[in-house]
């Protein structure tokens, strides 16, 4: 099958409605399950990869990983086919948008809003880590917000078991802005690597920026080996010191000083929220999302709006005269291949095109509903191990609210 058209039916069951997003290796379509009468998403591999055993294996791995991870904060997968043409994955249809789109609309989040988002992300990620898996591509594009305001973690194309040994390769796969130091250096990847990436996401939600930059994706990635993540309060006013501290622990360059996994990170975040008396917050659904534009557009297959297209995987040569295969304008936060050890290339997920990073002014906006963030609170002794408090014992999750 060279191209899916409106009305095409996969496996005599899933009728194609319209495209949602397109990447370098797959396109995501809205479809209808004719047997159950429900709307779903079909992630369909492009023809040039449908006969490639490596990519088929990767697609199958993503399907199996998602199938064993049933949780309200994870995108559900329902079906998979690698037999014949096309190769596809059937999963839950998200009717809202991405966290990237939400921050593009609203700018930096006040602490109570950022913490609310991260609680849901870390709750879903805890389910991943509890299964002995590492996500390896935590970023705002892979955090989806459903029409009912539920926050869900998506895109398990890079997932690996924590027991997996590093495979022989001179490349790694990830998203440059969110890579952990051990992903850059090719060391063993553990759940603490996802913790680092989640800490970067929290930093970005608070400040509207990522902590590091570089003239090239490789230079951007190497910056985290030489510099610590700055305090969010150094970029934007109004961030309590306890929030600075939790970001510092999550993004420590020393893996042994980080939270060991998402559950430990979540417990510490809950303690800080209680200490600061942060109000509850209903995460809003993005209005100008690719999903919303697709739903409002006429049903046709004649191309996809530019904002519905997510960035392809980029390749970065390790030689001194390195040039990027996709050119110098590759998005710094696109899922990319960087020099080091493990993993063969993996395909991107279903996230839409990245939005600009820098936004002015860097200040919390009144566009966030609900009470303002709580004022800074004095540091008090706590067992949760935030800098400024007694250190956490790595690998030991503490009880929330203790």
Short description:
The chain is α+β, with helices and mostly antiparallel strands. It has nine helices and 14 strands.
Write the layout of secondary structure elements.
Elements: E1 9-10, E2 14-22, E3 26-33, E4 38-45, H1 53-67, E5 77-81, E6 88-92, E7 97-98, H2 99-106, H3 111-130, E8 133-134, E9 143-145, E10 151-153, E11 160-161, E12 171-175, H4 181-185, H5 191-207, H6 217-226, H7 241-250, H8 262-276, H9 290-296, E13 314-315, E14 335-339
Parallel strand pairs: 13-14
Antiparallel strand pairs: 1-2, 2-3, 3-4, 4-6, 5-6, 7-9, 8-11, 9-10, 12-14
Helix pairs in contact: 3-5, 3-8, 5-7, 7-8
CATH superfamily of the largest domain: Transferase(Phosphotransferase) domain 1
Q: What is the number of beta strands? A: 14
* Broad structural category: alpha+beta
CATH architecture classification name of the largest domain: Orthogonal Bundle
What number of structural domains do the residues give? 2
Give the N-to-C terminal Cα separation: 57 Å
**SS field, number of helical segments:** 9
- What does the radius of gyration come to? 20 Å
**Order of strands in the sheet with the most strands?**
1-2-3-4-6-5
CATH class of the largest domain: Mainly Alpha
- Percentage of residues assigned to helices: 25-40%
The major sheet is characterized as:
6 strands, antiparallel
Mass-distribution shape: globular
Average residue pLDDT: 74
